[in-house]
Design brief:
By secondary structure, the protein is of the alpha/beta class. It has one domain: P-loop containing nucleotide triphosphate hydrolases (Rossmann fold), CATH 3.40.50.300. Helix content is 36%, strand content 20%. It contains five helices and seven strands, in the order ββαββαβαβαβα. Strands 1-3-4-2-5-6-7 form a seven-stranded mixed β-sheet, with helices on one face. The two termini are 28 Å apart. Bound molecules: guanosine-5'-triphosphate (GTP) and magnesium ion. Guanosine-5'-triphosphate binds next to α1.
Length: 203
Amino acid sequence: MEARYVKSVYKVSDLPRDRLLEIAVAGKSNVGKSSLLNSLTGQKKLAKTSRTPGKTRCLNYFEVNMGSGKPFYFVDLPGYGYAQVSKTMRKDWAALMDDYLMLEDRPSAMISLFDIRREPTEIEAEWIDWLHRWGRPWLLVLTKVDKLSGNERARALSKWTKLIGADGPKPTPFSAVTGVGRNDLWRWVNTVRREQTARAGRS
Ligand SMILES: Nc1nc2c(ncn2[C@@H]2O[C@H](COP(=O)(O)OP(=O)(O)OP(=O)(O)O)[C@@H](O)[C@H]2O)c(=O)[nH]1
Ligand SMILES: [Mg+2]
């Protein structure tokens, strides 16, 4: 497997036009989006990670080549929800994210990240409702599970499972530190790729 940085997109008119499958990674700033991509690809420095939240202001495209099948993109989305950044910056991100998520043809699928230590709020419930209505494949990933004990982990997992509901995908616990959840994520990504190939073959 090979992964490489392709480009940073600041406005939707600059999106790549090659129509490759596109899997977006979304979540609050500091939740571990870039760390997850580095862990999945086994390249520690692929996506920039930072202790300072809110650094990423654009969509970062990474092309992944699995050796078989078409290459696809992982898209590292800008993290939302940090008060430290200026109002103008926040407005720019929100506009970019809105434009991107309103597109008819992308992303093809979404990995939505939440810190397993945080209690889900109304905002998370609304986001999950949106994902249900969205109609494309999505997965909810609970990050930083290495920070919790087994009991705490189980409790958080059941809370999120309930919030997603029986008609949604099971939440996937993940740690960029221990590698927990990596295989589950790859399995899901490959299912999405297979479904996409099958759909393309039919049309
Ligand atoms: N313990 C632990 N720390 C993690 C994990 N994933 C990320 N971190 C840490 O959390 C911080 C933020 O991680 P990033 O991957 O940069 O988060 P991000 O979501 O890309 O943040 P933005 O780009 O600002 O939106 C870094 O200090 C990481 O080392 C994890 O699974 N376990
Ligand atoms: Mg990041």
